[in-house]
Design a protein that fits this description.
This protein has 248 residues and is an alpha+beta fold. The chain has a domain at 108-229: Jelly Rolls, CATH 2.60.120. The protein contains 5 helices and 9 strands. The strands form 2 sheets. It has a 7-stranded antiparallel sheet with strand order 3-4-5-9-8-7-6, sandwiched between helices. It has a two-stranded antiparallel sheet with strand order 1-2.
Length: 248
């Protein structure tokens, strides 16, 4: 058997020189130089031409450019939505509404009946929880009763802070909350068509606010009594349902 030919030998210096040679790196200029020129007679679009628009890497004339569909409103914005599986979500104008992250003792169905509204639209949170109703089906605008748990454990302290702040805001040094008829320990007040009530019974004081048109004034003591009597949910307890219910 004949011997295999030996591999050619190269000087060590030549090998090291080749290893040190930089690899070829393409540059925008080199790529551009490598692209074939357009055939004669074919027009080339100028991206700086005002008659041309860019869509990604493609150029179009203004008349033929694709028009992206406008962004659809987020679920719950402007119309009720339950696709989140957590709550009946609604906000008249918030672009991206969210469900209330805490309970307040609100009972949407019973308060709808007390106030005489035609439809419960849903809830959303914006500093406090807003519960929206449609008064009638004849083009009325949604109204809301809002509720929150505030950073006070003592209703008297919460009311004192509120009255002090409102006395400055209204420039009325005699501004003062008064007891809610039929709701022990609850206090309420009003100014410029807006009403506030502070309710005892939970670890944190609950504040409820509403405008004149949110519910008939003679029904609000019953509404507040219903909210005040609701049991506080246990820690990390799941919601009773998509629509807020007062725990009994």
């Amino acid at each position: 058997m004949s011997a295999l030919p030996s591999a050619p030998s190269y000087p060590l210096a030549a090998i090291m020189l080749c290893l040190a040679c930089p690899a070829t790196v393409s540059t925008p200029q080199s790529e551009a130089d490598s692209k074939p020129a357009p055939p004669a007679g074919v027009a080339v679009a100028d991206p700086d031409d005002p008659r041309v628009v860019r869509d990604g890497e493609d150029l179009y004339t203004v008349d033929s450019a694709p028009h992206p569909a406008p962004d659809a409103p987020a679920p719950g914005s402007g119309r009720p939505d339950t696709s989140n599986g957590v709550c009946k979500l609604f906000a008249p104008k918030l672009p991206e509404p969210a469900c209330c992250p805490f309970e307040t003792g609100f009972d949407a169905e019973r308060i709808q009946q007390l106030c005489g509204h035609q439809l419960y639209m849903g809830e959303s949170v914006h500093q406090s929880c807003g519960y929206f109703f449609l008064p009638d089906m004849e083009g009325s605008y949604p109204v809301a009763i809002r509720a929150s748990q505030i950073q006070h454990q003592d209703p008297a302290e919460a009311v004192a802070d509120h009255d002090t702040r409102m006395a400055r805001t209204t420039r009325n040094p005699n501004f003062a909350s008064t007891p809610v008829p039929g709701v022990e320990g609850a206090m309420w007040s009003q100014a410029n068509g807006i009403h506030w009530a502070f309710l005892p019974g939970w670890a944190n004081v609950r504040m409820v606010s509403w405008t004149d048109d949110a519910c008939p004034s003679d029904k609000m003591p019953e509404v507040l009594a219903l909210i005040a009597a609701a049991k506080e949910p246990p820690p990390n307890a799941p919601r009773p349902g998509l629509v807020p219910q007062a725990r009994q």
